Every structure is written in C-alpha cells, then in structure tokens.
C-alpha cells in the first residue's frame, strides 16, 4: 500500500518514495508497459538481420508501421504515467480509462517531447551549458502534460517554475535516475551479446526472440521505475514550490 507524501523530502527520501511508488503500482502497469515495448519492436521486423542486405530504401509499409507503432507507444507511455500518478494520489484508474487518457493527451505529450528535444539539442549546440540548463529545467514538461493537464508551452513554464531554486538538487536526482536507466541498457546489451554468441547458427531466431520477448519484458520492469522516479521528483518539487509560495505570501507586507 502506497502512502502519499505530504511534505518535501531529502534526496534519499525522494528516491525511496519513487521506489515505493514503483513497488505499489508495478502490477497495475506491467502489462501496459510490456505491450508498449512489444509494439515498439514491430518496425524491426522489416529490417534485415544481415547488414549487407540493406542496399536500398525501406519499403513504404515500414514507415506506416513505424508511425502507427510510435503513436501507440506514446499512448501507452501516457497511460502508464497516468496510472502511476493515480496510485501516488490514492486513486483508482482502470486500464481502459488510462488508455483513454493516453489517447486524449498523446498529441500534447508528443509536441512537448519534440520541443524539449529541440531545446536541449539547440542548447548543446550553442555552448553545451545551455543544453544542460534546459535539460534539467524543462525535464518535467511531459509529466506536467499528463499530471496537470498542461499544454506544451504551459508544461515548459510549469517545469521551469518548479525547478527554479532547486536546479542542482534536481540535477543530482535526475542523474541517479539516468544512471539506473544506463545500467538497464548495459544489462540488456550484455544479455543480447551473450544470446547471439551462444545462439551460434540460429542467430536470426535469437535476435527475433530478443526483439519480441526479452527486450519488451525487461522494458516492462524498468520503464515504470523510470516514470515512478520522475513522478516522485516532480511531486517533491511541487511540495517545495507550494511551501515557498506560502512563505512568500506570509512574509509579504500587509496591504490596507
């Protein structure tokens, strides 16, 4: 049973909150996360396993499948975040309703994601430092779209407002989350290399099994953890900002 947090936490407390949210909600989102990861692998079925076979452009059907699977994957991502947020706030969100939320918010979620990637890339191309600043300050724009029903531009303002004054602290927390994600990808790469190595003559079958079973399965365990940690950081920032806003109002001089 997840117990909602009502006061700002230490860095360790925020991470612990994210793990608690993950444990409390995994059963509710693991199937969704697996299906999202499975659908995302479908375009790979059109890519030849032999690199020498890539002699020309991909067939038009590949791009159609890629576009459809991308939209479905984003809908599932929004549904997973919405479900985790519901658990965090003590609400029940059935899978069908979570998917409807995903369908309703997939466009602003996509636009926010693209704008975020553009802002960070543009900042990195300038002098690197602006890219890092944007990467942390705007990191929660997609979460704001789902949790607070913000539009793409409003989500940028919301993320920047919450991170302001807590930038270094947020950087440390995000670094931990990204380190966990990096460990996952290293593990996945190791498993894939071992599977291909021991698969010998059946490498094509091994690779397809990895694409359709193992990769989505591992993603179904790690993706909810990634989102749970992001939500825990986001919630802590909201609690800190609400406390700062209250303190500012109380210290403001009274007006007649």
Compute the separation of the termini in Å: 48 Å
| Overall geometric form | globular
Looking at how many chains there are and whether they match, the oligomeric state comes to single chain
Total number of strands: 0
Structural class: mainly alpha
Number of helices: 8
Integer-rounded radius of gyration: 21 Å
The low-confidence runs, each spanning 5 or more residues with pLDDT under 50, are: none
Strand content: under 5%
What does the largest sheet look like?
none
Please tell me the overall pLDDT: 85
Order of helices and strands: HHHHHHHH
Residues in helices, as a percent range: over 70%
Structural overview:
- Helix 2 crosses helix 8 (203-251).
- The protein has helices spanning 11-40, 60-88, 95-127, 129-137, 141-147, 152-163, 167-199, 203-251.
- 79% of the residues lie in helices and 0% in strands.
- With 256 residues, the chain is mainly α.
- The chain is globular and about 55 Å long.
Topology:
Layout: H1 11-40, H2 60-88, H3 95-127, H4 129-137, H5 141-147, H6 152-163, H7 167-199, H8 203-251
Structural features:
single chain, mainly alpha, 256 residues
Short description:
With 256 residues, this protein is an all-alpha fold. It is built from 8 helices and no strands.
